[in-house]
Design goal:
Blueprint lengths: L8 H30 L12 E3 L4 E3 L14 H9 L9 E10 L5 E7 L9 H15 L8 E3 L2 E3 L1 E10 L8
Antiparallel strand pairs: 1-2, 3-4, 3-7, 5-6
């Protein structure tokens, strides 16, 4: 004996609505999936966004995959020593911090001294030496290897501490 399947109009409406619902959900899933591949580029969260530096007027990164590199070892310190005139302040120790941006082309921009909290208590001679350093730093224009971040050359802000001693000949060491 064969069993007869009776499909009533009510059963047909239920099956059709389930089929339509599945079809609609499948279409929605496909649209979302295609949209994520076609319309949107992937964003690497670790790459982050740069911040604006008001001194160099550039968007800069503070943390990068590869730091900028000077054209040769101790280039900035050597540059200062080379361009420093003889000082009458023999034995004076000069220590300061500088900040600068190495742009994506390797140029050093926005270079300057970071003021110390104790600068008010420094001697006139010390402040005079710091002003001489500022003048030397303004003329610095050597090209660096730019910083790299997420596979691209980027503007990178740098901070560096420098210290010198004025030797018996009035030269920096």
């Amino acid at each position: 004996m064969k069993a007869k399947m009776i499909l009533t109009k009510e059963h047909f409406n239920i099956i059709t609505s389930i089929g339509n619902s599945l079809t609609n959900n499948l279409i929605i899933c496909l649209v979302v999936l295609l949209n994520s591949f076609v319309c949107c580029k992937s964003v690497d969260i670790r790459c982050g966004k740069p911040t604006y530096d008001p001194i160099s007027k550039l968007k800069v990164y503070t943390g990068v995959d590869e730091l900028p590199k000077p054209p040769h070892e101790l280039s900035l310190k050597a540059y200062i020593i080379k361009h420093y005139d003889v000082s009458p302040n023999i034995g004076m120790q000069i220590a300061f911090r500088i900040r600068f941006v190495v742009d994506k082309n390797g140029h050093v921009v926005g270079l300057g001294l970071i003021p110390s909290k104790n600068e008010v208590s420094y001697s006139v001679e010390y402040l005079s030496e710091l002003n001489r350093m500022k003048e030397i730093l303004r003329s610095y224009n050597e090209e660096w290897k730019p910083g790299m971040h997420c596979g691209k050359k980027v503007n990178t802000i740098m901070y560096m501490g420098l210290s010198f001693v004025v030797d018996e000949n009035g030269k920096l060491r």
